[in-house]
Amino acid sequence: MKKYSIIIALALLTTSCGSDENKVINKNNSPAIPVKVSSINANVNKPFFTASGKIEAVDNTTLSTRTSGYVDHIYVKVGDKVKKGDLLISINNADLKAKRAQVNAGIIETKAAYNIAKKDYNRYKNLFAKNSASQKEMDDMTANFEMAKARLEAANEMMNEINAQFKYVDIKAPFSGVVTTKFIETGDLANPGMPLISVESPEKFDVTVMVAESEISQVIKETTVEVLVKSIDKTLSGVVTEVSTSANNTGGQYLVKITLNKTDAAILSGMYTNVKFPSNKKSAINKVLIPMDIIVKNGQLSGVYTVSQNNTAILRWLRLGKTFGDEIEVLSGLNANEQYIVSANGKLYNGAKLTVQ
Description:
alpha+beta, conserved putative lor/sdh protein from methanococcus maripaludis s2 fold, Elongation Factor Tu (Ef-tu), domain 3, CATH 2.40.50.100, 4 domains, six-stranded antiparallel β-barrel, 3 helices, 36% strand, elongated
């Protein structure tokens, strides 16, 4: 029985060795994997520096009132689209309406007096031309007409003032856009200067960044820059439109504004950005950037597959730096002119045969 057990064990060992040998042979004889590569030199960017900022709509406003009163009605909700002139909020305006009715009555009265004075003036003007009226009578009619005219103009100015006050009790949209914030509810007391509602237009966006004094001299108006919108992982383009020349009230930082070019990206006000400005400093070091989606992870290690002189895959571990959009900075681990694999038609591993396309 012991003899048969030894024979079976030897048979299993032989079979296992043969299987492993076949695996090695099959692996060594596996077909070459088609790959596409890129060179480091193709990704060495011109020197640049970055600054963080935030997106804001070019057309944005927070509406308030110049009068006190309780909110009668709010006609919109946050997120609603509005057109220029749409009524947004009504504030109780009974006193103002009464005042407008009083002024309107005064206008009717003064206009009637003006029309009578004008007729008298024209009639005496004709009589005076025919020497049928004295100079005193003509002067009296002229003075009466001028006073009636002045009273009508004053009444109209008063009505204009009343109508202007209605702009602050009937809060209307100053432009077409979207309601972004509502600071008050129906029944609340609105006071002068108190924010009521915010509206912005989603058509055009700016990015506002603060640049350190060591870099501000390199920021030039009309320069095209790259803007990474972090939350949606999109890199957009924009143009520098404003560069502040003072940092007195900003803690040594200079305000720079970039107007974003038109895009279909789903950007919103308040999104944080990372702006890449070109650098003209001679001491600046070129940054090596590679696509993030080709990075191979193994625990805390990061690397990329490169191509050896024998056209086999070599996994090269890297030291990485900052991310810029969908690219990441390589601090060390890749040599100049060295190619790395950006895509493969098969699973890569160390020593895998490659066919560079």
